[in-house]
Amino acid sequence: MRDALEQIKNTAIEKLEACGDLKALDELKVKYLGKKGELTAILKQMGKLSPEERPVIGQLANEVRAKIEEEVSRRIAQLKEKQLAAQLAAEKIDVTMPGKKFDIGKKHPLTIVMDEIKEIFLGMGFDVVSGPEVELDYYNFEALNLPKDHPARDTQDTFYITENTLLRTQTSPVQIRTMEKRKPPIRIISPGRVYRSDALDATHSPVFHQIEGLVVDKGVTMSDLKGTLEMFIKGLYGEDSKIRFRPHHFPFTEPSAEIDVMCFNCHGEGCRLCKGEGWIEVLGAGMVHPKVLLNCGIDPEEYSGFAFGVGLERVVMRRFGIDDIRMFFENDMRFLEQF
Ligand code: DAH
Question: 285 — phi, psi (to 5°)?
Answer without folding.
Answer: -160, 175
